[in-house]
Amino acid sequence: MDGSSSPDGSFRTNFVREPGALRHHPALVLNADYRPLSYYPLSLWPWQDAVKAAFLDRVQIVAEYDEYVHSPTTRIRIPSVVVLKDFVKPQRRVAFTRFNLFLRDEFSCQYCGTTGDLTFDHVVPRASGGVTSWENVVAACSKCNLRKGSKSLRQCNMSLRKPPRQPGAEELRNMGRKFPPNHLHESWMDFLYWDAELEA
Questions:
Q1: In terms of DSSP bridges, do strands 118-122 and 59-70 run parallel, antiparallel, or are they unpaired?
Q2: How many whole angstroms separate alpha carbon 85 and alpha carbon 83?
Q3: How far is CA 185 from the centre of its chain?
Q4: Alpha helix (H) ranges present in the chain?
Q5: Is the dihedral of CA 182, 29, 14, 74 positive or negative?
Q6: What contacts 15, CB < 8 A, 6 or more positions away?
Q7: What is the pLDDT of residues 30-61, one digit of tens each?
Q8: Which of 13, 27, 30, 82 could form a disulfide with 38 if both were Cys (CB 3.0 to 4.6 A apart)?
Q9: pLDDT tens for residues 115-153?
Q10: What are the backbone angles phi and psi of residue 128, rounded to the nearest 5°?
């Protein structure tokens, strides 16, 4: 998920991922329809970006922290939830990245189902003409990856839990809702729906 998270940028999905940064009053960024731009990673800005966007009248502040920031002439509360004033159309194309691949496969080995020590594996080995694509690469634990090596699934008597395919952008966003981050500020909860069943 590449792109800029700066208020001067294109409001995409390169958001705060570093746990250390989450301790410093990040702002949850909502689209103009009050839905998060991204669930995984959660669409968060550093508080400085949120304040700048509010100053430039690009967002509306809908919730705040109890803490304040000061300038020589101004004292304002730090935003905890901001809403974009202009709707950002979600990206339709899903970038083929390691992160998105793991998200598609729910951070689990596609051979045995374990969730630790993940890498990725070419189902049809590159040595046999296999390509690096959504349809031929899966998340795999190191043990299964080593066992399979450069052999075919039939040769090593292994099978996939589900056939690999390219996910849609909305599908991947919904998949991210299964993995809430460790840090969730109470002011964000009215805008987040982790694993909630949607009404038809």
A1: unpaired
A2: 6
A3: 17
A4: 47-55, 98-104, 142-148, 169-176
A5: negative
A6: 5, 29, 37, 38, 41, 42, 43, 44, 45
A7: 999 999 988 878 899 999 999 999 999 999 99
A8: 13
A9: 988 999 999 999 999 999 999 999 999 999 999 999 999
A10: -105, 15
Question: Residue 51 has what pLDDT?
Answer: 92
Q: Using CA atoms, how far apart are residues 108 and 103, in angstroms rounded to an integer? A: 9
What is d(CA 67, CA 86) in angstroms, rounded to the nearest whole number?
Answer: 27
Phi-psi region at 153: left, alpha or beta (left = phi > 0; alpha = psi -120 to 50): alpha
**Measuring CA to CA, which residue among 198, 184, 139, 178 is closest to residue 43?**
184
User: Which residue do the tokens 């056939």 mark?
Assistant: 163
User: What single letter denotes the amino acid at residue 80?
Assistant: S
* Strand 137-141 versus strand 118-122 pairing type: antiparallel
Residues 6+ apart with CB under 8 A from 89: none
**Cis-peptide into 72, omega within 30 deg:** no
First to last CA, the chain: 29
Question: Which runs of E-coded beta strand occur in 12-131?
Answer: 27-30, 44-45, 59-70, 75-84, 118-122
What span, in angstroms and rounded, lies between the C-alpha atoms of 42 and 192?
Answer: 10
By the 10 Å C-beta count (0-12 exposed, 13-18 middle, 19+ buried), 134 is classed as: middle
CA distance 89 to 64: 26
